[in-house]
Write a structure and sequence with these properties.
With about 600 residues, this protein is mainly alpha-helical. It has helices spanning about 10-15, 20-35, 45-50, 55-65, 70-85, 100-115, 180-185, 205-220, 230-235, 240-265, 275-320, 330-345, 350-375, 385, 395-405, 410-420, 425-455, 460-465, 470-505, 515-535, 540-545, 550-565, 570-575, 585-605; strands spanning about 35-40, 90-95, 120-125, 140, 150, 165. It holds the Pfam family Aa_trans.
């Protein structure tokens, strides 16, 4: 499109461009018809982008190609096509405060929809308070123009009213790196290279990113939830448990791909791709607050349950003859001496070595459980209740479904990994599929073996069910405690990422927290979850967080965001962007079934 360039501007650009005319036309269409995401982050950014020079930029570029009628005609057609696409915006959300918001709204509607503004649904948020100009964000989420490139008209503090074009790029090339958002610029740094072994903007190949994402996500998913999985399978029996686990796993695979697609769209124009920004893009500030609270409760509840299990395991490892199931002093020493330093790492990438060790411990645990059950001859294999437990199924099966929802949740970890991968979603998606498949296999092996070995006697702690004593029991307890501690770290990383993202809202650019802020935030999150863990009863925490936060964060938000922010399948926008909204029936089915089962689980837990 149109790029802000230092004079002289015009024929020199044509001379420097070695591409043939057809390639130049393709570049024009690619720039103009990519998905529209225009975020004006604050009033300073607003004033900088909408100034008088934007009006003259158009004339400068058109004059530069006055001798080439073909290019001029193609450029004019592209601009008209862009204006048409902006008329069918599915939603425009404008956050304004100040007396000029009415003028801004009127001018914006005149440009976006021409004479027919009824095709655009608009919500103006914020009351009239003072004359501070613009506060908040101008969000236009649908199809049309590239990031920071859209026909727009507002009443700016400098006095401009009526149409203006926000310059984002030359008609013959993509936007310059300095004009792209930091993450979009990084995502495009490796454009044109082929194969998964070619390094992207992070300096790592896609294969390396895939392996790193797989190890981190596998540990984050299975983490501490593998220890109570036997009790979950005992509620339903082996066959319904496996079927339920497969359904929940496939639902999470589906929604994880949706969230990565939406996160890449939103993240290309925001400082960080985070779940709150996704919720704000489709529902405004209220939805963002709701999703932020749900995600915090989900992650915090998981961390509390994790530390509750750690307390039991460290106590058995250090004080095998103690009458207390969990000694608080042992938990404090283990948390501050091992868990807290591990959580102070700056990125999930730094956790990959520890995650690999944790996954090896997990494989060893699954093998040990299978060998123990096989050695005992699967004593309950002929018990009908072991295969399908229909006792009180109407009340207890939804509880098991909610616990499976917690066991497989992966959504909060995806966007931090996408951010570290510089918006390269493909290796993260493949890593999520591998990690969830791995978790499904481990859950089915451990849960089935436990039910066929001890049946309804399965407890919330796998270590207690294995009845290993002496030195071997202490070694097993230490191994499980280390594994659970390693599984705590990726979940806390996602929680800290979400909390630190709150402070960067309203600021342009990617503001990284200082080391002191990073460590202080980590300390507060670890100590607060440890305080709740003193109460014990990890299974109750798992059930409640799985029934509420997991549904909102892992199922409802990705499905709604995908249908509100992604173009519909079969449209030119979908073919150009490479992503499309999924079939409505699948998303509705996931949301309805998940909502009903989660609601029943909450009621059953308290009744």
């Amino acid at each position: 499109m149109i790029r802000r360039a230092n004079p002289p501007h015009g024929a020199q650009n044509l001379d420097r461009d070695p591409r043939p005319l057809e390639s130049q036309r393709i570049a024009i269409w690619t720039d103009l018809l990519s998905p529209l995401k225009c975020y004006v982050l604050n009033k300073w950014d607003f004033q900088r982008r909408l100034t008088e020079e934007t009006v003259s930029i158009i004339n400068q570029n058109m004059m530069a190609y006055k001798d080439d009628e073909e290019i001029r005609r193609e450029f004019s057609r592209s601009v008209k096509w862009l204006r048409y696409k902006q008329r069918i915006l599915r939603e425009t959300t404008v956050d304004f405060k100040g007396e000029k918001r009415r003028q801004a709204f009127s001018s914006l509607m005149n440009v976006i929809s021409g004479s027919d503004s009824s095709v655009v649904r608009v919500r103006i948020r914020g009351g009239v308070s003072g004359v501070s100009g613009v506060s908040g964000a101008l969000v236009m989420s649908s199809v049309g123009a590239p990031p920071f490139g859209a026909a727009s008209a507002v009443s700016t503090p400098s006095g401009i009213q009526g149409p203006s074009i926000i310059p984002v790029g030359d008609p013959l090339s993509s936007p310059t790196p300095s004009e792209q958002s930091p993450l979009l610029r990084s995502a495009n740094d490796g454009r044109g290279r082929e194969g998964d072994d070619a390094p992207n903007a992070t300096g790592r190949s896609r294969t390396s990113l895939y392996l790193g994402a797989t190890t981190n996500l596998a540990l984050a998913v299975v983490g501490s939830t593998v220890l109570p999985i036997g009790a979950t399978f005992a509620i339903t029996g082996v066959l319904p448990g496996i079927a339920m686990a497969c359904v929940v796993c496939m639902a999470n695979l589906y929604t994880s791909d949706l969230l990565l697609a939406v996160g890449k769209q939103v993240g290309s124009s925001m400082p960080k791709p985070e779940l709150g920004a996704v919720a704000f893009a489709y529902g405004g500030a209220r939805w963002r607050t709701l999703v932020d609270v749900a995600q915090t409760l989900l992650l915090f509840g998981g961390n509390c349950g994790n530390l509750a299990l750690q307390g039991e395991l460290w106590t058995r490892a250090v004080m095998p003859n103690s009458s207390e199931p969990s000694n608080p002093y042992v938990l404090v020493v283990a948390t501050l001496g091992f868990v807290f330093p591990l959580c102070c790492l700056r990125s999930m990438r730094a956790l990959e070595t520890f995650a690999s060790a944790g996954n090896l411990l997990l494989v060893g645990l699954a093998i040990a459980v299978f060998v123990e059950a096989a050695r005992s001859g699967f004593p309950l294999q002929h018990d009908r209740r072991s295969w399908m437990n229909t006792e009180n199924a109407a009340k207890m099966w939804p509880v098991a479904f909610a616990q499976f929802g917690f066991d497989f949740y992966i959504t909060p970890q995806l966007l931090p990994l996408l951010y570290e991968a510089k918006l390269d979603a493909k290796p993260i998606s493949r890593g999520a599929w591998t990690a969830l498949t791995f978790a499904l296999i481990v859950y089915c092996i451990v849960g089935s073996c436990e039910v066929l070995r001890i049946g309804q006697a399965s407890t919330d702690n796998l270590f207690t069910d294995m009845h290993v004593s002496g030195v071997a029991g202490q070694i097993l307890a230490v191994s499980l405690a280390v594994f659970v501690a390693l599984g705590y770290a990726p979940v806390l990383f996602a929680l800290r990422y979400s909390v630190l993202s709150w402070r960067s809202r309203g600021h342009e650019g990617d503001e990284k927290a200082s080391l002191a802020t990073h460590v202080a935030t980590t300390f507060v999150l670890v100590v607060s979850s440890m305080g709740v863990a003193f109460w014990g009863n990890a299974a109750t925490i798992f059930a409640l967080t799985g029934a509420t936060g997991a549904y909102l964060v892992c199922y409802l938000t990705p499905c709604v965001a995908a249908h509100r922010l992604l173009p519909r399948a079969g449209t030119p926008e979908a073919s150009l962007s490479g992503v499309a909204a999924p079939p409505v029936i699948i998303s509705v089915l996931i949301c309805v079934v998940g909502g009903v089962m989660s609601s029943v689980a909450v009621v059953s837990t308290f009744v």
